[in-house]
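Note to self: keep these together.
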Amino acid sequence: MAKKKERKNKTPSKRYALYEKKGDVLERKNTFCPKCGAGYFMARHKDRLTCGKCGYMEKN
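Structure:
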């Protein structure tokens, strides 16, 4: 019988870092993309904000 391959540990997602809990309400830390609308976050880089879906970019 063939040997099983060892699985490498995957790093867990850090989606919890995008939200902040205030009382009973969750607040989003990042801004949404103005083209794609609600639900698509803008990624924060050193000098810009970018959308992963449409490629929209804002310079800081």
